[in-house]
C-alpha cells in the first residue's frame, strides 16, 4: 500500500520479536545512522550502528578489514555481528551496512527478527552527500572518483532486490522523522508506542 507516493507497506506477518527491533536498510549515504539515532531518541530505545559493532568486535576499522582480509572476511564478520545484535533483548534501532541484507542470508535474519525499513534515497542525493568525503571512507566506493554516481547506480541496481523486501519502504523527505512516524504507526510499529 502506498501513501502520498512516499512509502509503501508490505503485507507481511508481524511477530512480537520483530516489534522489539527496527532495522534500517539502504545505500551508503542514505542517512540510516542519522535517522536511526532520531528514531531511537523518539522511542527512547537503544541505537546501534552495525558497522560500529563490527569495528568493536574486529578491533580494526572497516577499510583496514577490507584491505587486510578482503570483502569475504568482512561479510562473515558482518553476518556474525548481525546475528548477535538481533538476539539481544530489549528494543533496539539498528542501522545496517549498505550491503548487509545482500549476503549470508542476512535479509532473512533481519525480516524474521526485526521490523525492516528501507530508506530509499535517489542516487543523485547519495552522490552529493558522499562527494563531501564520505565515499573515501567506504571501501567499495573509495576508488569511484568522478564515476561515483554511476557506481552508486550500479550498486543500487544490484541491491534493490534485497532492499525491496523490507516491510516498509520510505522515500526521503525534508522532515524524515515527522513523515516516517505516521507510516510506522500505520504499519503497526511499534506496538503500543506513542507517535
TrEMBL record:
It holds the Pfam family SKI. GO terms for cellular component: cytosol. Monomer. Belongs to the shikimate kinase family. The gene is aroK. PANTHER family: SHIKIMATE KINASE, SHIKIMATE KINASE 1, CHLOROPLASTIC. It comes from the Bacteria. The lineage of its organism: Bacteria, Pseudomonadati, Bacteroidota, Cytophagia, Cytophagales. This is Shikimate kinase. It is an enzyme of class 2 (transferase). The keyword Amino-acid biosynthesis applies. It comes from Hymenobacter nivis.
